[in-house]
Specification:
With 381 residues, the chain is of the alpha+beta class. It is built from 15 helices and nine strands. A hairpin with a 2-residue loop joins strand 8 and strand 9. The radius of gyration is 23 Å and the shape is elongated.
Amino acid sequence: MEAVAIGLVLSMFSAIEDPRASNARHRLVDIFAIALLAMLSGYDDYPGMVEFGQDRLDLLTGLLALPHGIPSVSTFRRVFAAVDPAAMGEVLGRWSAELVKTCAGKQIAIDGKALRRSFERAWKKMGLQMVTAYCVEDSLVLCQSAVEEKSNEITAVPKLLDMLDVTGAVVTVDALNTQKVIAKQIIDGGGDYVMALKENHPHLHDRVVRNIDDLILEKFAGVEHTCNDTTEAGHGRIDRRRVWATDQLTWLTAEQRVEWTGLRSVVVVESTRKLPGKTEQFRRYYLTSLPPDARELGRLIRNHWAIENGQHWCLDMGFNEDQSRVRTDHGDENLAAIRRIALNLLKQDKSRKIGISNKRLKACGNWKYLLSVVTGTSNRK
């Protein structure tokens, strides 16, 4: 198993071009192999990676070349800062593709996440913001793209979609990324979309809100539509969700229907929460290229936020990502890719229901378990 696990890791990282001089003392693939194994074992920074390597030098010897032993902290720092993050992103994408196989028939949620401590005022460097694609059904990160300085997610999402095969998939995005070019890119790629609509498109939002709200008030008299009504109670509150969807869009201008490639239906979700002494109610509006199936669309809209619990929360609570102060050059982005590879591998392990943090602790103390997570054999009996 040792040879298989380390061979897999080395093969995944072997395509990354080494930015260092030809006389470098440590192999690039050895550095990344140690980094990934250390990340899986609960070590979040460069000093931790060195400690991991030194503590397991007898196990790593023979599996890795290590011509000069375990690299130093400064070596890890320089390598992660210098390596092209696009190449590291390709490693994440290839590994994810091996785990997910296909996205057809699945939901891909796209959302951004800021690494709160990856900034430095003295350097005038903004904190790193990563936009990631997340496969809801498999609970896996598919790929990532960094938001460029003085830009926002809107420019990063098209790059992210270029990395994905969305054929047969449904892509869900928040209101910031509800853009005509993104809708066209998804449709041209063979996928469908569900996009939140807010005031960043004022004319379209106003027209949708006025007409859909009137239709709800009139109980969609003479207008074909679907509706789904669910109620949940617990923790001292009652939550009711009503979803309406219609493909009768004659009240949109011809220009609006053409501009939004593939637009087929409009959806509204009304959420009512009853708490002791007060009631809260609000509506959210969506554009979609899917048929007006209120139940299915309501499921997709709700599942979009699986990316918050399945990725963002796990990275912050299980990997302390928000506390990472790595910020030199490409170091923060490359380290973020290593975290997401590790998160995917740990999520693939279904043999133990102990949470990400405890799986990392187990990997730290159990070499055989660590290797089985890498190879995906931990689920086999």
